[in-house]
Amino acid sequence: MSDTQRRLLLIAMPWLAMATLLILWELACIVFQVPEILAPKPTRIFEVMVLRWDILLKFCMETFVTTAIGFVLAIGFGLLLGLAVGASPFIYSGLYPLLIAFNAVPKVALVPILMIWLGVGALPAVITAFVISFFPIVVNVATGLATIEPEMRDVMRSLGASQWEILTKVGVPRAMPYLFASLKVAVTLAFIGSVISETVGGNRGIGFLMLSAGARNDSATTFAGLFSIAIMGVLMYAACALVERRMTRWAFRGEIVT
Amino acid sequence: MPDPLSPSDAAPLVELRQVSLAYGSGTGRMLALEDATLSIAKGEFIAVVGPSGCGKSTLMKLVTGLLPPTSGEIRVHGAPVKGPIRGVGMAFQAPTLMPWRTTRDNILLPLEVVEPHKRRFRANKAEYVAKVEALLASVGLGGFGDKYPWQLSGGMQQRSSLCRALVHEPEILMLDEPFGALDAFTREELWGVMQKLWLERRFTAVLVTHDLREAVYLADTVYVMSRRPGRIVKLRRIELPRPRTLETTFEIEFVDIVHELRERIHLEHA
């Protein structure tokens, strides 16, 4: 195999794997005569996606907006809290156990409470997306700060740098790759959060669409919703991964970034 | 102006009087440095050698005020040291360059932090960049300013680290085994670079090393430390003429001094 072939195959592999999976699914449906209400054939799902793209897109956009708002809040809040936790041992020892306890609570349990407080609508989904995704950001940013090399700190201190200068000139840039690495995880979580909220009780978004299609025994539409969620999830992850590569070129030691 | 080659005549810049330092407390207490007394004249180049773990690096942190002594007194310019002192440059065994900054921006760092440069930095950036370029050229790194540290070899990173330690023209330069992680050829080449910089600028330098040839090549005065708890057990003035070259290191006087120091350290291991 030549180098070019090798490279092309590497690029093609994910698509080949996905195609294989879908073909197996399709064949299984035909061979075992699976009724559509249990599991529609992928071709049928894609047919529905094409036929009802306008509705799917509308509901997807609703979910995307709630996810994006929750995610942006999580970045802002997570970054600030992560810097505070990473910079001060007192804040660390005070808040860390609380954070862990908070993270251990299944967020789906919060949705009914949020509904009581805020009613049905976009807000519970935004808040669920936010609370579920800020934790990995806090932990990663704090880790980035806490692992500053002691020598680096000595260099700065011997130059007479203030704590603030050490934080801004060493801490923040050093925490950036950790922040961006956490964003990939956090964006997926934020997305899960808003879909959960929409599914548990809501009147908008792709989760709600799937719920109501399921209630009507419209499996094809439910699965079309599922596929849309998967596609959106991959796109958001990819967007974060791209931003990560662009922003922290040094952490990848400049490899294959153009 | 005092002749830097005969430091004993000059008023001391740094003075340590019976300085001890213990880490931890209670049963975990460990005496790292005991009863150290030494004085460093302005413009003097001293080296501290000794077995590993003898508190050499501790001594360095004490002089710069990064660590407060457990007992005893440290004075710089006659004033007691109470916190990190200003006007110090430091270079370590690891280059500790910031990977997100180019080599040039790494070397500019002290100028962004240390007064009076800090105040003038934005307005006079071009002047400072030119200064950094000149410094890079003087250590043989001309034209490498745009490279990131991770694009440079170990020796080049260490040269950059020396540039960063010197760019703000510190009065005192602290060197903690700066050449320790390099291969022998690069190390010996950098001795020459270091000596050249010192001869040009005449800063006061404290070199911590376990390489006796390195100590004798670079220093005016070599202090030998004992095993933990570290005490100063020998002071040796090196009066070999400068500039010293690699040839010097093969001359009989040089070898004799290295031998003498080696024997004293050997006692510590006996």
From TrEMBL, chain A:
Domain ABC transmembrane type-1, first and last residues per copy: 60-244
UniProt keyword list: Cell membrane, Membrane, Transmembrane, Transmembrane helix, Transport
Primary localization: membrane
Organism, as annotated: Bosea caraganae
Lineage of producing organism: Bacteria, Pseudomonadati, Pseudomonadota, Alphaproteobacteria, Hyphomicrobiales
Pfam families registered for this protein in UniProt: BPD_transp_1 (PF00528)
Official protein name in the record: ABC transporter permease
InterPro entries referenced in this protein's UniProt entry, alphabetically: MetI-like, MetI-like_sf
Protein localization: Cell membrane
PANTHER family to which the protein is assigned, alphabetical: ABC TRANSPORTER PERMEASE PROTEIN MJ0413-RELATED (PTHR30151:SF0), ALKANE SULFONATE ABC TRANSPORTER-RELATED, MEMBRANE SUBUNIT (PTHR30151)
Segments crossing the lipid bilayer: 12-35, 55-83, 95-120, 126-148, 178-200, 220-243
GO CC annotation: plasma membrane
Annotated membrane topology: Multi-pass membrane protein
Family to which the UniProt record says this protein belongs: Belongs to the binding-protein-dependent transport system permease family.
Matching CDD domains: TM_PBP2
GO biological process: transmembrane transport
UniProtKB/TrEMBL annotation, chain B:
Stored SUPFAM superfamilies: P-loop containing nucleoside triphosphate hydrolases
Keywords carried by this UniProt record: ATP-binding, Nucleotide-binding, Transport
InterPro entries: AAA+_ATPase (IPR003593), ABC_transporter-like_ATP-bd (IPR003439), ABC_transporter_ATP-bind (IPR050166), P-loop_NTPase (IPR027417)
Domain of life of the native organism: Bacteria
Organism lineage string: Bacteria, Pseudomonadati, Pseudomonadota, Alphaproteobacteria, Hyphomicrobiales
Record-given protein name: ABC transporter ATP-binding protein
Family statement: Belongs to the ABC transporter superfamily.
PANTHER family, per the entry: ALIPHATIC SULFONATES IMPORT ATP-BINDING PROTEIN SSUB, TAURINE IMPORT ATP-BINDING PROTEIN-RELATED
Domain ABC transporter: 16-252
